[in-house]
Specification:
Length: 249
């Protein structure tokens, strides 16, 4: 019963979106919006085509590399800034200011530095995802209960023991929240990078379909990316909630 209740919300949302999609199709017509079932069938056939696989692999590799850079780099920088209060206080408004900028305005700079190709997409994706990870990690480290640290020192724990038994359990829920947000933004940045300057990848296919007014391909790629993003974020959100419940217990 609990599993059914947990699935009720997503299933209701899915049905609502499909009904709304079908209504919009009836109103707009095939030239603007294809119906849900033909679009899903076309997407399934598109995935099975050999020419589609290299584009999917290209996007997957770019996203995986950008996510690794954003995650590892963001956690590392966040720990350093959180551990040194003055550095964190100086860096935080700067990071928030950069985060508020529309990243697309920085894309010409990315192209000048990295050129066309995989490296530019990776850099642009990492640029989107790294700052939230830094901010969440920095605040998690900065807000660790000092009583825990004093208790660890009183118990004569080594630095490794202090990190494993105190810092990681205390900061992991907040850091994971930053990683979850960074995941979504890194995916967004990677796709934007492929849209504007790429010769392979899902973003390239999407731009080609837009130029050709290929509505079925446009919707199929959009649905495919959306399904991946929703599924991944649902899993990450479930882990995030479990971690926060465990830390509150």
């Amino acid at each position: 019963m609990t599993a059914i209740r947990s699935l009720r919300g997503p299933l209701l949302l899915t049905v609502t979106l499909l009904v709304a999609w079908q209504i919009l199709h009836q109103w707009a017509g095939d030239t603007a919006l294809t119906a849900p079932l033909p679009t899903l069938e076309y997407m399934w056939n598109m995935i099975g085509q050999k020419r589609f696989l290299p584009h999917l692999v290209e996007t997957g590799l770019a996203f995986a590399q950008a996510l690794a850079i954003a995650g590892l780099g963001g956690v590392g920088i966040g720990v350093l800034l959180g551990g040194h209060r003055l550095s964190g206080e100086v860096a935080e408004p700067i990071l928030v200011g950069i985060y508020s900028l529309p990243k697309i305005t920085l894309y010409p700079v990315i192209l000048l530095l990295f050129g066309l190709g995989m490296s530019a997409k990776v850099a642009f994706g990492a640029l989107h995802g790294v700052i939230p990870v830094v901010l969440f990690t920095m605040n998690a480290v900065r807000n660790v209960n000092r009583t825990y640290l004093r208790t660890g020192r009183a118990m004569r724990l080594t630095p490794a023991q202090m990190g494993w038994h105190i810092l990681i359990p205390a900061t992991l829920p907040e850091i994971f929240t930053g990683l979850r947000i960074g995941f979504s933004l890194t995916l967004l940045g990677t796709m934007l990078g492929e849209l504007f300057a790429s010769q392979r990848g899902l973003g390239f296919l999407l731009m080609t379909a837009i130029d050709l007014n290929d509505v079925q391909t446009i919707l199929s790629i959009a649905v495919l990316i959306s399904l991946f993003a929703v599924a991944a974020n649902s899993i990450l959100l479930a882990i995030d909630r479990r971690l926060h419940r465990g830390s509150a217990a």
